[in-house]
């Protein structure tokens, strides 16, 4: 536990040092694309005091001065599959973003979508030595949370306090300065598999970059795609990516649940390729221009030229109706939404006040998806686009860049986590996290 705690604190310090220098890079490593944003922070707002324990703690203003994206190589299901190809793709994206920004960047904050995320809800309680809650009391109550034994091959990615209670008063965002006899805390713990994180860290170091933070893509997408009221009242963000579909549930402006379905837009492309016997590149083009999930009477008469370069004239001049294309795409999209419905039911999403569902990510742009999702998920569904941030190019404002923009907001407005408090060494949880992230210690 000590190694994990200290290494996470080191990453937080590196992030703060990069912010103090005024520039940091954002790296979204996905199955379909790798996006890089270079952020420049404004001096006037960079040193603002913390506003409390929450999603706006330690605010900072920033502007995007460089942006680049490239086709992802060597990544499957949100995890690195071929190291050399992924390294080249990351170098390509980072160098293009640096060229646009006109400066070199040494520190990056990365997000990823794989590694089988799993959520835990923890609770801790302490008696206050003094009647006034101080920062040390917050650290002690977080250390008092009983962390489950989640296995030797998993690591903690996020450990965020989501609620505090003083005596019988619950729903407190920041208890410091308030008076009482006992302090309780609810914390959300997100764990992931160790091996994919090790591969990502090693790949980033091979690109001559220093890692200043890690985040879940589903968490980052929720930050950017959900509006403030949705984050407050209880909503779910579904990030339809290429290899995986990320899921995050927010309430009171905190993420309380996250999961991932290992099916995404690339699986739809593969279905089209197999069903029509065409190359993957052609299947992706047809899906982008003519795809859909709801067929109408006109779709039987709308013919799509498949094209090809096999040399067989009859084969290359084939046409299919749009209704046939929709018939191939719809079963896979329904499978994704059914899996998401099962994860939401397991998380108790029906008990939240608002129950709003927001679809984002590149796969959410399929025409008719919102209507199909509302029938399967049975809730209020809307399509979400990332928040507009200063300097973001028009090409990077679509739903496919929700994770990238959310990671930029995560870098500028980090929510306080377990690692941000000075927990006394004798208060470390004894039975949990014993096999901590050695990869941090070995690679710094």
Description:
It is a peripheral membrane protein. The strands form five sheets. The protein has a five-stranded mixed sheet, sandwiched between helices. The protein has a five-stranded mixed sheet with strand order 14-13-12-17-18, sandwiched between helices. With 444 residues, the protein is of the alpha+beta class. Helix content is 36%, strand content 27%. Among the domains are: 118-194, Dna Ligase, domain 1, CATH 3.30.1490; 266-331, Nucleotidyltransferase, domain 5. Helix 8 (265-276) packs antiparallel against helix 11.
Short structural description:
This protein has about 450 residues and is of the alpha+beta class. It is about 35% helix and about 25% strand.
CATH fold description of the domain at 118-194: Dna Ligase, domain 1
Determine Rg (CA atoms, Å).
Answer: 23 Å
**CATH 2nd-level architecture of the domain at 118-194:** 2-Layer Sandwich
**Which class of the domain at 118-194 in CATH terms?**
Alpha Beta
pLDDT averaged over residues: 83
